[in-house]
């Protein structure tokens, strides 16, 4: 599960990770109030107005702005709130900004040099352990750093049997070129960050930038936190952090129906049992001359109810010109799935696009018969090859 | 010969008396798998499906001689079930459960490494040796005893491959569902290695998906060891977008190496017969074996 920057920072702070302080608001008036409160607390006269959306690249898209007085706070909050923010991660339509974080300015001048770093923690699937990645190239896209100067990325693998050791935290801090107070602060920062990562069951932390201030404090200016969905059952307090306005409405509806659905931008919808076969079905659609409109795994127990819910969601996507249903009936019988498809079709009424139903496995022939005799605009197939051919014909208009 | 499980395997079911455990234990028994009992803590001493229920895996090992375990317990308790089996002296643990927290699996895998045991899964359809033994949830009727081994991250896509191999007249030796999670007990390469060493297996189908580096690792190993048997490969997710989880917890494109295209390119370089469409697995295997 993805969460917002302000939520991520709250979690980090509760584990003793120093953060850039801020207050989240949803109106310009509250933005000014928040700025006043922050000035009283931190002494910071300048403030940063940061759009809260689940996407990176906010600064370049105009979603992060510096305000040097309260009038500017109001002005910039007004500009950002409600805007459709477009970044390289939002797609061309962008994302609407509903909340802004009013944050203290931490780039104030002082005796020591200000410097940005990068730190992330994630799972290394190859070794089955967590890895801390750090770089002196703070503020930059880490994938670019990895491509152009991989030697600038420091990696420290954590042995699951003993966890993060102090020599490892020191190693990272030294490798970042730190000394004195800033070094001590960084060791503390890494320790607190790793503890937060493990105890929150996170699957990714990315702190970019981590800042060394002009008075040698180390703090998180931004924070991207990804929580392990499978572990949410033991973190009841994280469940309200989900922001459904950040998700595609069809995906929200699908998840409410226990369907695993990902919206894509093609023209052929699909409904499949099993994640691997669902991805493979998308690939077949592409090879047949179409583009997949979605990923949809209905799981092991495909029945009339799940098929109907799936149909309704696929049909809400206006780009869909055809639907391919691909079920390999192992435990679930194909004749039952076929009956489910016919019932769901009738419950919805007229379905405006052709449907290809490929049923294979237990009672496949009986399933095909039910489809063929239903009198509906549904084409049956048994072999995967036949299904691919029928998709092609439907798209060509030759069927 | 076969790998991992055969007609002599003495199987116990962890989560035996639950609805999933009961249904699939029945199916396994029907297929002829030697299910010697099950484990449900607190129900020890009773019987279920005419077989003894034990409180602990250790009791099942000591009293029923169990050497293989299949796990159906809910995600919150599954990592514990894996470690209990490993500690009790089980030799092959097959974990079907989907949705285990990654942190739990990091610890469980680390624990399993210290014992003399092979873990398959989690989040997998199990392992099946055609005509001998089913320790999993796959539909048995699509299998026929034959000469092709299968390694796959996905359940229904495995069935697809099995079905095509049956229709092509090739049949199967053992199908190994390794699972779709980011942390799994047995990697693609390790499963392929088992099948390469099995004298009855004449060809291997290797099915992967986006995410992780396991298929590339297996492909390089196959090439380095001299391509001893023909391997037909497929990677699901050629059309999957970056950064989105496609059903399986492990099926997500992070970096460039995670994509289907990258994996397929490496597999081709390593002499694997890569199919673009999963509809061509059976036919391509016939060609690879020189039978067509």
Topology:
The complex is a heterodimer of chains A (about 400) and B (about 290).
Chain A: H1 5-14, E1 22-25, H2 28-42, E2 47-51, E3 64-67, H3 70-80, E4 84-85, E5 95-96, E6 100-104, E7 115-124, E8 129-135, H4 142-148, E9 153-158, H5 166-175, H6 180-199, E10 202-212, E11 218-220, E12 224-227, H7 249-256, E13 260-263, E14 268-272, H8 275-287, E15 294-297, H9 304-315, E16 322-329, H10 334-348, E17 355-361, H11 364-372, E18 378-381, H12 384-396
Parallel strand pairs in A: 14-16, 16-17, 17-18
Antiparallel strand pairs in A: 1-6, 2-3, 2-6, 4-5, 7-8, 7-10, 8-9, 10-11, 10-12, 13-15
Helix pairs in contact in A: 2-3, 5-6, 9-10, 10-11
Chain B: E1 11-14, H1 19-31, E2 35-39, E3 47-48, E4 51-54, H2 57-64, E5 68-71, H3 75-88, E6 92-95, H4 102-113, E7 118-120, E8 126-129, E9 133-136, E10 145-152, H5 155-167, E11 172-177, H6 188-196, E12 203-209, H7 214-224, E13 231-236, H8 260-269, E14 273-274, H9 281-288
Parallel strand pairs in B: 1-2, 1-5, 2-4, 5-6, 6-7, 10-11, 10-12, 12-13, 13-14
Antiparallel strand pairs in B: 3-4, 8-9, 8-11
Helix pairs in contact in B: 2-3, 3-4, 5-9, 6-7, 7-8
Q: Which short descriptors sum up this protein?
A:
heterodimer; A: 399 residues; alpha+beta; six-stranded antiparallel β-sheet; four-stranded antiparallel β-sheet; 12 helices; 36% helix; B: seven-stranded mixed β-sheet
What does this structure look like?
The complex is a heterodimer of chains A (399) and B (292). Chain A has 12 helices and 18 strands. Chain A has helices spanning 5-14, 28-42, 70-80, 142-148, 166-175, 180-199, 249-256, 275-287, 304-315, 334-348, 364-372, 384-396, and strands spanning 22-25, 47-51, 64-67, 84-85, 95-96, 100-104, 115-124, 129-135, 153-158, 202-212, 218-220, 224-227, 260-263, 268-272, 294-297, 322-329, 355-361, 378-381. In chain A, strand 16 (322-329), helix 10 (334-348) and strand 17 (355-361) form a beta-alpha-beta unit. The longest helix of chain A is centred in the middle third of the chain and has 20 residues, at 180-199. Chain B has helices at 19-31, 57-64, 75-88, 102-113, 155-167, 188-196, 214-224, 260-269, 281-288; strands at 11-14, 35-39, 47-48, 51-54, 68-71, 92-95, 118-120, 126-129, 133-136, 145-152, 172-177, 203-209, 231-236, 273-274. Chain B starts with 10 loop residues before the first strand and ends with a helix. In chain B, 60% of the residues are buried. At the A-B interface, helix 8 and helix 12 of A face helix 4 and helix 5 of B.
């Amino acid at each position: 599960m993805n969460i917002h920057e302000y939520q991520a920072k709250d979690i980090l702070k509760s584990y003793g990770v120093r953060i850039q302080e801020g207050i989240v608001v949803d109106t310009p008036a509250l933005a000014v109030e928040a700025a006043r409160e922050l000035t009283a607390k931190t002494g910071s006269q300048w403030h940063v107005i940061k759009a809260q959306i689940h996407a990176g690249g906010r600064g370049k898209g105009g979603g992060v702005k510096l305000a040097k007085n309260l009038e500017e706070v109001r002005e910039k909050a007004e500009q950002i709130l409600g805007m459709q923010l477009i970044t390289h991660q939002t797609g061309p339509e962008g994302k609407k900004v509903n909340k802004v974080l009013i944050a203290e300015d931490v780039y104030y001048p002082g005796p020591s040099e200000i410097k940005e770093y990068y730190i992330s923690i994630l799972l290394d699937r190859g070794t089955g352990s967590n890895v801390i990645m750090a770089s002196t190239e703070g503020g930059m896209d880490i994938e670019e750093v990895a491509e152009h100067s991989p030697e600038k990325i420091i990696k420290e693998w954590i042995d699951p049997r003993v966890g993060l050791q102090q020599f490892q935290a020191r190693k990272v801090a030294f490798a970042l070129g730190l000394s004195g107070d800033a070094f001590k602060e960084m060791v503390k920062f890494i320790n607190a960050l790793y503890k937060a990562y493990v105890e929150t069951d996170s699957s990714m932390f990315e702190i970019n930038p981590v800042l060394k201030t002009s008075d040698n404090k180390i703090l998180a200016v931004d924070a991207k936190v990804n929580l392990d969905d499978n572990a949410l059952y033991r973190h009841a307090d994280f469940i309200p952090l989900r922001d459904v306005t950040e998700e595609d409405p069809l995906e929200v509806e699908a998840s409410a129906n226990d369907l695993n659905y990902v919206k894509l931008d093609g023209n052929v919808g699909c409904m499949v049992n099993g994640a691997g076969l669902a991805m493979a079905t998308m690939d077949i659609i592409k090879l047949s001359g179409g583009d997949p409109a979605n990923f949809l795994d209905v799981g092991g127990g495909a029945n009339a109810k799940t098929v109907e819910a799936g149909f309704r969601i696929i049909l809400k996507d206006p780009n869909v010109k055809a639907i391919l249903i691909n079920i390999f009936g192992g435990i679930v019988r194909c004749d039952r799935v076929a009956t489910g498809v016919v019932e769901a079709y009738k419950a919805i009424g007229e379905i405006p696009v052709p449907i290809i139903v490929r049923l294979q496995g237990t009672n496949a022939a009986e399933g095909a018969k039910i489809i063929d005799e239903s009198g509906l605009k549904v084409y049956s197939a048994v072999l995967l090859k036949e299904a691919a051919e029928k998709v092609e014909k439907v798209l060509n208009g030759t069927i | 010969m076969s790998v991992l499980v055969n007609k002599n395997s003495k199987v116990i079911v962890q989560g035996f008396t639950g609805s999933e455990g009961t249904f699939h234990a029945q199916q396994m028994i029907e297929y002829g798998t030697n299910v010697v009992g099950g484990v449900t803590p607190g129900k020890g001493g009773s019987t279920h499906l005419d077989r003894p229920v034990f409180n602990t895996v250790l009791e099942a090992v000591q009293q029923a001689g169990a050497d293989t375990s299949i796990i159906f317990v809910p995600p919150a308790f599954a990592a514990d079930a894996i470690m209990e089996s490993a500690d009790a002296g089980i030799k092959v643990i097959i974990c079907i459960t989907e949705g285990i927290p990654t942190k739990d699996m990091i610890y469980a895998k680390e624990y399993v490494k210290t014992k003399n045991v092979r873990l398959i899964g989690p989040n997998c359809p199990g392992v099946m040796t055609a005509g001998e033994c089913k320790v999993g949830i796959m539909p048995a009727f699509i299998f026929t005893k034959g000469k092709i081994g299968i390694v796959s991250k996905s359940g229904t896509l495995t069935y697809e491959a099995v079905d095509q191999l049956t229709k092509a007249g090739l049949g199967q030796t053992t199908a190994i569902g390794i699972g779709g999670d980011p942390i799994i007990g047995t990697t693609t390469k390790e499963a392929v290695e088992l099948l390469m060493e099995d004298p009855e297996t004449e060809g291997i189908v290797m099915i992967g998906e986006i995410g992780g580096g396991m298929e590339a690792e297996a492909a390089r190993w196959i090439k380095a060891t001299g391509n001893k048997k023909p391997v037909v490969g497929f990677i699901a997710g050629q059309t999957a977008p970056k950064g989105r989880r496609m059903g399986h917890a492990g099926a997500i494109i992070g970096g460039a190496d995670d994509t289907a295209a990258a994996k397929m390119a490496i597999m081709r370089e390593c002499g694997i017969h890569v199919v673009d469409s999963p509809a061509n697995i059976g036919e391509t295997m016939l060609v690879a074996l020189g039978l067509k």
